[in-house]
Amino acid sequence: MLSPSDLIGQQVWIEIPKDPDYPHFDAYRIKATLTQPTSPPWFYARFDSPPASVREAGQWISLKQAQDAYLYDPVVEEYDLEEDFADEEDELNLK
Predict the structure, then answer these.
(1) Which of 28, 40, 33, 31 is nearest to 10 (CA)?
(2) Cα distance between the two ends of the chain
(3) Which DSSP symbol is given to 77?
(4) How many domains does the chain have?
(5) Are 32 and 46 a contacting pair, CB within 8 Å?
(6) What is the residue range of 29's domain?
(7) Which residue in 16, 17, 4, 21 sits closest to 50, CA to CA?
(8) Model confidence over 36-55: pLDDT tens digits?
(9) For residues 45 and 14, is the Cβ–Cβ distance under 8 A?
(10) Of 36-45, 56-65, 83-92, where does the model show the most confidence?
(11) Which residues pair with 34 in a beta bridge?
């Protein structure tokens, strides 16, 4: 599997269960960055811009939860296709 050093600094989606104080809201998926302020097997998923109804700054997760989040719920950055194909118009004389 993945070592703890492979997981530190990775951005993942963490699911937060429904808060009983906010019954009209559904469960959240919040972008988080994995850190390890203590020794393994514990990680801290620090939330990036959580909604106001989430009172915590992050969540403690186990090594298994961190590995699962990295493998199954990674944050995928948007890919800019215009950058890749900007030169193609010049090559095909489409301008």
Answers:
(1) 33
(2) 50
(3) P
(4) 1
(5) yes
(6) 4-91
(7) 16
(8) 887 778 899 999 988 887 88
(9) yes
(10) 56-65
(11) 45
